[in-house]
Amino acid sequence: MSTVIKGGTIVTHDLTYKADVLIEGGKIAAIGPSLSGAEVLDATGCYIMPGGIDPHTHLEMPFMGTYSTDNFESGTRAALAGGTTMVIDFALPAPGQGLLDALDMWHNKSGRAHCDYSYHMAITWWGEKVFDDMAKVVDKGITSFKHFLAYKGALMVNDDELYSSFQRVHDLGAIAMVHAENGDVVAEMSARLLAEGNTGPEAHAYSRPTQVEGEATNRAIMIADMAGAPLYVVHTSCEESHEAIRRARQQGKRVWGEPLIQHLTLDESEYFNPDWDHAARRVMSPPFRNKMHQDSLWAGLSAGSLSVVATDHCAFSTEQKRFGVGDFTKIPNGTGGLEDRMPMLWTYGVNTGRITMNEFVATTSTNAAKIFGMYPRKGAVAVGSDADLVVWDPEKEKVITAGAQQSAIDYNVFEGKSVKGLPRFTLSRGHVAVHDGEMRSQEGHGKFVAREPNGAVNRALSQWKELTAPRPVKRSGIPASGV
Ligand SMILES: NC(=O)NCCC(=O)O
Ligand SMILES: [Zn+2]
Ligand SMILES: [Zn+2]
What Pfam families does UniProt report for this protein, alphabetically (predicted)? Predict the structure, then answer.
């Protein structure tokens, strides 16, 4: 069956124009004036944009003695409700576990997804098996590898492992990713805070000052540069980290920064709330920062030094957060945001004039598609692209509340925020998953998206590295040895 979206204005990362969109077989079949199709979606007064891509989620993630509550079913349903039509989750091998085993585990979880998905592979330990498996997962369409410099004793890797893995990433034409916080320093600070009686959720923020993020970001950038790997820095939360990314980009290094919608719109005062539950629900790493850091992140989005707005959706219930009563280091780290990312960014970004509509599309969708090797299949309104679209009504308003959300947890960190700008329709490969506020998404409709290695950035970087590689100097005469 064909569907036509009529009467709207198409907004892409670089163009804004009036046209209808015809969808056939889950793909965009035509774009132009006066198109017709069997099903008609009225987009009068709306913008037709590529559906959002959230390249940073943790659905049903095993972490800190529990599993994040939103799984691929509730998480992707929440995504569609907010205009996001694809997520990239993280497959996390346990210590000693092979990458292909971990991949199988994630495939077993994702069968219930309502929208399309892919994975990044985490490098949580190092050895010959990991080295070998990295090539095998690239062959299966997983072309990005995440490294945690935080979570000492759990997910953290050391610098020698990081350098080895980044070299492998370079050789495979993949993308390196990093959670940049200095895990050694965080562990020391946490132990001292606890010993001094700082046990509440606010101590989580005290234990992770901006310097631990700035140092680790800079370190990862330098190591990636030496290894010749393009680097994507997840959840950039502060000026120190942003500054390192900005500087690297000015120097021509291939580095991208990803602020989260939480860090852009919520600040550290949340941790000083007298209600323990309120503060603990907002514990995540890195923690929320102050207004100066938020201004830096917003400036980065308009200046182009920061590239993607994500959520790091990793939602734990209040009951799970209470594992950390009396010891903040046991509060499961993570917050939700999948349903709210696009409405919050539109409200606080586009409606305030901090970013343009085209920058909104770039940072919520197109840039992620390009960086992670799936453009223009995803992230585009173009003939032949998947019909992952959102028909965005800039006049539609709501107040965010947990009672009305798709997420399975019992609260929302954006509770009470008024947003203006919401989906009228969200389409996942042509299927109308959200119809004027009504959820029509289908469990199991989502498909795995295999991604391509060796993108243009990899090729350019490899060429440059090859050209500038150390070479022995050819000499005509070599003096006799002195001995
Ligand atoms: N961010 C966070 O606190 N939890 C999810 C895991 C991670 O991305 O570090
Ligand atoms: Zn992280
Ligand atoms: Zn994360």
Answer: Amidohydro_1 (PF01979)
Q: How far is the CA of 334 from the centre of ligand 1 (A)?
A: 5
Question: Where does the pLDDT of residue 395 fall: very low under 50, low under 70, confident under 90, or very high at 90 and above?
Answer: very high
Percent pLDDT > 90 in the chain is 98
Cα→Cα distances 475→10, 426, 466, 467, 478, Å: 62, 66, 21, 20, 7
Question: What's the number of CA atoms in the CB half-sphere (13 Å) around residue 146?
Answer: 24
Q: How confident is the model at residue 483 (pLDDT cuts 50, 70, 90)?
A: low
- The ipTM, to two decimals, is 0.99
Crossing angle between the packed helical segments 210-227 and 159-172, to the nearest 10 degrees? 50
The answer to whether the beta carbons of residues 351 and 421 sit under 8 Å apart is: yes
On whether residue 84 sits in a domain, the answer given is yes
| Cβ density class 375-413: b for 16+ within 10 Å, e for less | bbbbbbbeeebbbbbbbbbbebeeebeeeebbbbbebbb
Q: Structural domain of residue 222, as residue ranges?
A: 51-381+395-418
Is 11 within the bounds of a domain?
no
- DSSP 8-state secondary structure symbol assigned to residue 403: G
Does residue 180 fall inside a structural domain? Answer: yes
d(CA 253, CA 417): 38
Domain CATH for 172: 3.20.20.140
Ligand 1 touching residue 284 (CB < 6 A)? yes
pLDDT digits (tens, 9 = 90+) for 300-344: 999 999 999 999 999 999 999 999 999 999 999 999 999 999 999
Residue 268: HSE in the Cβ half-sphere, 13 Å Cα cutoff? 20
User: Could you tell me the two tokens for 472?
Assistant: 């022995």
218-235 tens-digit pLDDT: 999 999 999 999 999 999
346 part of a folded domain: yes
Q: Kindly state the average pLDDT of the residues 254-274.
A: 98
In ligand 1, which atom is closest to the CA atom of 68? 5
Residue with the two structure tokens 């069997």 = 38
Reported as half-sphere exposure (CB side, CA atoms, 13 A), residue 232 has a value of 26
Strand 418-428 with 389-399, pairing: antiparallel
Return the ligand 1 atom nearest residue 283 CA.
Answer: 3
Nearest Cα residue to atom 1 of ligand 1? 285
d(CA 148, CA 156): 5
Q: Which of 314, 329, 330, 338 has most ligand 1 atoms within 8 Å of its beta carbon, as the pocket-test mutant?
A: 314
Q: What does the pLDDT look like over 402-441, one tens digit per residue?
A: 999 999 999 999 999 999 999 999 999 999 999 999 999 9
With a 6 Å cutoff on the Cβ, whether 146 touches ligand 1 is: no
- Regarding the beta carbon of 333 and ligand 1, being less than 6 Å apart is answered yes
